[in-house]
Design brief:
The complex is a heterodimer of chains A (about 675) and B (about 150). Chain A is α+β, with helices and mostly antiparallel strands and about 675 residues long. In chain A, about 65% of the residues lie in helices and about 10% in strands. Chain B contains four helices and seven strands; from the N terminus they run αβααββββββα. The chains are: A alpha+beta (about 675), B alpha+beta (about 150).
Chain lengths: ~675, ~150
Amino acid sequence: MASFGYTLLLIAVVVTAYTISMAVVGHHTRRPRLVVSAEFGVYALFGLLTSATFVLVYLFVTNDYSVKYVQHYSDRSMPLFYKVTALWGGQDGSLLFWVWVMSVWSAIAVVQNRDRNREIMPYTIVAMSVVCAYFLGLLVFICNPFETYLATAPTDGRGLNPLLQNPYMVSHPPTLYLGYIGWTIPFCFAIGALAHGKLDYAWIASMRRWCLVAWVCLSVGLALGGLWAYEELGWGGYWAWDPVENAALIPWFTGTAFIHSIQVQERRQMYKAWNMVLIILTFMLTLWGTMMTRSGIVQSVHAFAQSSIGEYFLIFISVVFVVSFGLLYVRRSQLAPENSLESVVSREFAFLANNWVLLAAAFFVTFATMFPSIFKWVKGEQINVGPSFFNIWMIPIGLILLFLTGVGPLLSWRKSTGATIREQFTIPGILAALTFGIFWFALGIEHPAAVITFALSVFVTSTILQEFYRGTRYRMKNAQEGPIDAFVTLLNRASRRYGGYIVHFGVVLMFVGFAGNAFKLEKEASVTRGHSVSIGRFDVRLDDLVFEDDGQKNMVTAKVSVFELGADQSKATPIATLEPAKWAYRKPEDQVTTEVAKLMSLRDDLYLVLGGYDAEVGTAALQLKVNPLVNIVWLGCAFLMFGLTIAIWPARQRATQPSPLRRLWPSIAGSGALLIGLMATVLAFI
Amino acid sequence: MSSAKIKILLSVFVITGASAYVVGDTLFAENAEHLTYFHNADVVLAQPEAMTGKRIRMGGHVEKGSIFQKKGTLEYQFDVRPVLAMVTHQDVAEKTLTVRYKGTVPDTFKEDAEVIVGGALGADGVFEAKELIAKCPSKYEAAKKEAGTY
């Protein structure tokens, strides 16, 4: 069975070669039938890789431990669910998964464009196939997931670490992949357009939704990674500026810049070359991120999977760089802007500023991630950088971005007059100033970054509310509709615009959550049975220490009651019981897992870790943390998904739509389902 | 020169200037709060006087059988020995250094694990750690990275 899988990969290599040659020959000899044949090559690749992926899953499910990859990442005792998802548990399988997703998305893109963008399709197909061929090459020659043991095969696998047997860890990698690979498709279209020379807005228009979907996948993937760290790793945070996290964040910056600046190209036929640069950079940075975490060129406090594929990535990135920017140079005259910037008080300039800030963020995070390596190279000494190093620059950058989130959408195209600016920004400006005053002077909170974040959040939120209010009022007046009908029609008619506002609101919520970090409380305490310890507004009493064993693991659980202290710190009302625990698994290798217990609310999380215990005396060593506003981050992510669903929902013709509410329901249902799914996963862990 | 060219030149200038500033600022601000020197345990063992009181990060392996946790507390004491592959002072390659730490330890902290401790060497020759990071000897981190990277 394993050799069958490998054979499928070999056939896939041949098919991509066929696809590339058919597309090139068909394009240059003007024979559309050959191009159609190339498209069938893309479908064939999809079929072959789907089969190969299923073969690997089958090997996992049937416990075929003669296959090295299966033996490394699973064992007999694992539930079926985790056996299937062990597919992306390691490098070789994740590469197969990567190229499989790539083939799925290529096939979808080709089907969608069977009747449109015909001129640019041949080279788009070539670009897709070259990317697939590169990854197939890695699979076939360097990291073959179907490699078997030559000697006698082991009877059981090594198992997947319990820390990875977690729903977040199952959903996080594929979501990130969808995002990463999602950006590859628009890149291929950009190459197709550059190669053919048809450089109008058409291809970007048909790729707009792709980009948004890729963007939301990457965003949600990052958030899920944060949730996993927060739930499972027990250090009480969700983001540590680790190189692995940064690798996914850097292309997110350039991708975000791209989805903003293509709107300028759509409306004003400007920034054409710039948009090309952004999409090429985004794709290159996804490759770069992959390489950075693989090749060992970046030292991390985490153990990296070191492997030899780093240099192959470097070669591929260089090829992508030379080809893409070479094409861009050749086509530079066709990418000249048709309009020029008329004023700095215009939406196109706000978008440009947004792009620059995002690019600065991408540059800085890349630099800071590489910094220890650069430092060692320059000074010969080894250093480590921590989150504070990143925060020096990322906090101001984030605040500028937040400000632009409020300003950009309200400025007019071409030039905003003084009257427009007064009309748009008077109320939000006053509200922001008031917020700043209240937090800084009245409440005496002396965290500049946090207070500015709150003020800017109020600013952006009020600009958004103002837009919704004015839009609804306008419709009520002009179309004689009731408020609800007017609101729903608004969302429906201008779904891109108002969906975008909801996404922005989600971003605002996330910033509010980030600002909560400034007010973290932390405490360590040894508590004896019956005694209690207080932190912030909470009083935590240890009721009991329980020792259990379920055969698979030893479990120590601290049963604690949580009380809320009154204003004078005296009257305590019981609000919950929590059970932080420590589990020691017998296999693999006496792995210990810390089971965090949390009391969640929108206001804050009480986060309890059982660090140690004394069974004889009945003492538990607890680490207590209060993380204010942390759940607002996840809520913001939900709004982001909801807004995006609205923004990409296809606008349908008016005549076929009886009621505006009915037109909107699929989008509401869709995002509702996503939200419920997310909540359910969260709730499953409380 | 056309105004477009001036704009481009100006942009390039601003971008390079800003980048150079960030690079220079971080690279040459010697005692910046956010930079921590990293040493393998043998460097600390070889020159304890020079190292005493300096805020550093130190790498090493947790010596087998040396982990001691004061019961019912979060106070740990353990010995680290230098990471062999990085040793520069051969004479102390086999020695160990005692580390004291108070706080929760990562799940990956166990005997033989590669750890990084952040803190300073005390006058009594014991390393007082304020932070403790453990690399995983097994494949979990590797697997996490691999799974999360593409």
